[in-house]
């Protein structure tokens, strides 16, 4: 008679959880995924309102080469599960002086855009591309190494084999230079014009940090846009859907509307979970794909944590939230010219957002704000009813407001923002809105059970990365493993996939002793 | 006899003054830092505070 109902219980069906579920199921383990809501995906999901299906969280695929590595581990072909289309132009960028340019993917076409705005920065642009290419070549070279068996992925010898590439040599000086500077300093060294600096220096928001706290390594993201951002057919939820399909093909199970109340700990080991209704499910190991703060303070329980860990978990800062309002349009608008429209204010204003507003818990005037507007139906018309369009507008705002409660001002604030978008980018927007849903940081927290509505989990600064980020294999509770954006390497779909691979590899290695 | 008596008397006061000097220099640095901190604008002060907070707390994270 089996001692445990399942070999592994996975809490949360985000990309990290489903990656682990697929890999562990393939290894022959009996896996159960528990999802608190009725949808998979977590921060890489969507929802459906009368045919409008905006993305929730992740809005595009970057570094799609990494996805192939996961499928290599699964012995499957990615093309059988996912269908990507290339996003080109990458952005429709609107600056505060009224400049509006489509940023193409092609490097030379992009140089012409730079020339049209600041001819003096073209040389700097090519210098930037040359440097970033060295890093990108290294990245491709590392990924060209065949994947070992899952249990060997995290072995030091394999990691060294993967990163010891000849491409390291040309990339080394650039990497060292970038890693010892902040993003704003790096961008300033290539470009002189403030508008160009802003165009190449705002994507730090994907790491959820202001440019002055962000490592210069992130300047590579803009170059990766030149190498290709992709969008999967069916929206970003296609990725977790594919992983679920694979997991189920290997015998894994998933249960919806099953919120976990506690991780059951016996003799210092995680031995299953107790659901909110009181049902207990026993398992030999538990993988948590929820925020590390929730995992340790709520699910494990403060009483089971030594004071050092309690202090560490409580004081580890969350990344910024990514509040969004979703809009369903009655008719398609010609002014939506690309999958992404970026509205940037002046560079001073953009930098000031952090210390003048964000740090103080204040809301800026929408006209002074920066927005990333994503149109999911631009590349996949099926994501909106026929003849209509769906938009998601993501902006920066603090979790706690000094003078307001988010719930009181959610709609009013969103409509003010819509008026600003109408003025700056999309004439006639307000009257074209059929449906609007304002998802503030507190609403994000409720819907996704994300502390502080932090899409990227924990802050991705130097003091919260590497050994300072929660370990895949819990150092506090045996048989408990963590995956997701709160573990290394951090937030973002491909990085979360890597965390799922690493956690699964460790679990498989530990399996005989669990 | 006189040598035995004089040795500790000569060494101990010397040690005391050495530590006093160190303390004095430390206090001077602390005062300078305090003064410098008040001269910073709010943004820079926030950045320094954040760095100090992270520098203190990051080591606890090694245990999670």
Summed up, what is this model?
Chain A is an alpha/beta fold and 514 residues long. Chain A has helices at residues 15-26, 65-73, 107-117, 122-143, 156-163, 168-179, 183-190, 194-201, 220-227, 238-249, 292-301, 307-315, 347-358, 376-379, 406-424, 441-448, 493-510; strands at residues 6-11, 31-34, 44-46, 55-57, 84-87, 91-94, 100-103, 229-232, 253-255, 260-266, 269-275, 280-288, 324-329, 340-343, 371-374, 389-395, 433-439, 480-482. In chain A, the strands form 4 sheets. In chain A, strands 1, 2, 9, 10, 11, 12 and 18 form a 7-stranded mixed β-sheet that branches. Chain A has a 7-stranded mixed β-sheet with strand order 7-6-14-15-16-13-17.
Explain what you see.
The complex is a heterodimer of chains A (514) and B (64). Chain A is α/β, with parallel strands linked by helices and 514 residues long. Chain A is 37% helix and 17% strand. Chain A is globular. With 64 residues, chain B is an all-alpha fold. Chain B is built from two helices and no strands. The longest helix of chain B is centred in the N-terminal third of the chain and has 38 residues. In chain B, 5% of the residues are buried. The mean pLDDT of chain B is 79. The interface between A and B is medium-sized, with 24 and 14 residues.
Any chance you could write out the topology, listing elements then pairs?
The complex is a heterodimer of chains A (514) and B (64).
Chain A: E1 6-11, H1 15-26, E2 31-34, E3 44-46, E4 55-57, H2 65-73, E5 84-87, E6 91-94, E7 100-103, H3 107-117, H4 122-143, H5 156-163, H6 168-179, H7 183-190, H8 194-201, H9 220-227, E8 229-232, H10 238-249, E9 253-255, E10 260-266, E11 269-275, E12 280-288, H11 292-301, H12 307-315, E13 324-329, E14 340-343, H13 347-358, E15 371-374, H14 376-379, E16 389-395, H15 406-424, E17 433-439, H16 441-448, E18 480-482, H17 493-510
Parallel strand pairs in A: 1-2, 1-12, 2-9, 6-14, 12-18
Antiparallel strand pairs in A: 3-4, 5-8, 6-7, 10-11, 11-12, 13-16, 13-17, 14-15, 15-16
Chain B: H1 2-39, H2 42-57
């Amino acid at each position: 008679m089996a001692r445990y109902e399942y070999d592994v219980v996975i809490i949360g069906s985000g990309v990290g959880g489903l990656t682990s579920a697929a890999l562990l199921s393939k290894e022959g383990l009996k896996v159960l995924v528990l999802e608190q809501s009725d949808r998979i995906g977590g921060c890489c999901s969507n929802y459906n309102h009368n045919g409008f299906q905006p993305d929730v969280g992740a809005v595009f695929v970057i570094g799609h080469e990494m996805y192939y590595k996961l499928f290599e581990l699964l012995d499957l072909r990615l093309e059988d599960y996912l269908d990507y289309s290339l996003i080109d132009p990458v952005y429709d960028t609107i600056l505060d002086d009224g400049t509006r340019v489509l940023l193409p993917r092609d490097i030379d076409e992009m140089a012409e855009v730079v020339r049209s705005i600041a001819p003096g920065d073209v040389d700097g642009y090519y210098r930037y591309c040359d440097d970033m290419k060295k890093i990108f070549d290294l990245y491709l070279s590392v990924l060209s190494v065949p994947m070992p068996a899952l249990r060997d992925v995290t072995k030091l010898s394999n990691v060294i084999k993967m990163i010891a590439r000849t491409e390291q040599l040309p990339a080394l000086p650039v990497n060292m230079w970038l890693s010892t500077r902040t993003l704003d300093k790096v961008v300033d060294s290539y470009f002189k014009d403030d508008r160009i600096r802003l165009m190449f220096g705002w994507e730090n928001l994907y790491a959820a940090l202001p440019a002055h706290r962000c490592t210069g390594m992130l300047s590579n993201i803009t170059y990766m846009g030149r190498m290709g951002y992709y969008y999967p057919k069916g929206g970003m939820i296609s990725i977790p859907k594919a992983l679920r399909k694979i997991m189920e093909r290997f015998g894994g199970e998933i249960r919806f509307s099953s919120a976990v109340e506690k991780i059951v700990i016996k003799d210092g080991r995680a031995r299953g979970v107790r659901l909110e209704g009181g049902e207990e499910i026993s398992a030999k190991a538990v993988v948590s794909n929820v925020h590390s703060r929730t995992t340790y303070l709520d699910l494990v329980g403060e009483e089971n944590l030594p004071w050092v860990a309690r202090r560490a978990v409580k004081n580890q800062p969350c990344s910024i939230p990514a509040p969004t309002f979703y809009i369903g349009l009655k008719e398609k608008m010609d002014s939506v010219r690309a999958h992404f429209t970026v509205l940037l204010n002046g560079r001073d204003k953009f930098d000031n957002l952090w210390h003048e507003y964000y740090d103080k818990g204040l809301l800026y005037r929408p006209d002074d704000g920066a927005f990333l507007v994503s149109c999911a139906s631009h590349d996949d018309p099926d994501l909106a009813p026929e003849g209509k369009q769906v938009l998601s507008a993501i902006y920066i705002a603090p979790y706690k407001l000094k003078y307001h409660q988010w719930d009181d001002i959610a709609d009013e604030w969103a409509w003010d923002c819509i008026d600003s978008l109408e003025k700056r980018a999309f004439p006639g927007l307000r009257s074209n809105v059929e449906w609007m849903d304002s998802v503030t940081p507190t609403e994000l927290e409720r819907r996704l059970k994300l502390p502080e509505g932090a899409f990227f989990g924990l802050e991705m600064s130097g003091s919260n990365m590497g050994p300072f980020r929660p370990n895949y294999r819990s150092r506090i509770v045996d048989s408990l493993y963590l995956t997701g954006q709160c573990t290394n390497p951090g937030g973002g779909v491909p990085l979360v996939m890597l965390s799922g691979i690493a956690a699964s590899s460790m679990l498989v290695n530990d399996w005989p002793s669990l | 006899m006189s040598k035995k008596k004089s040795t500790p008397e000569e060494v101990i006061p010397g040690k005391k003054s050495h530590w006093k000097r160190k303390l004095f220099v430390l206090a001077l640095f602390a005062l300078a830092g305090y003064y410098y901190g008040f001269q910073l604008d709010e943004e820079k002060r926030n950045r320094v505070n954040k760095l100090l907070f992270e520098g203190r707390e990051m080591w606890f994270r090694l245990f999670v």
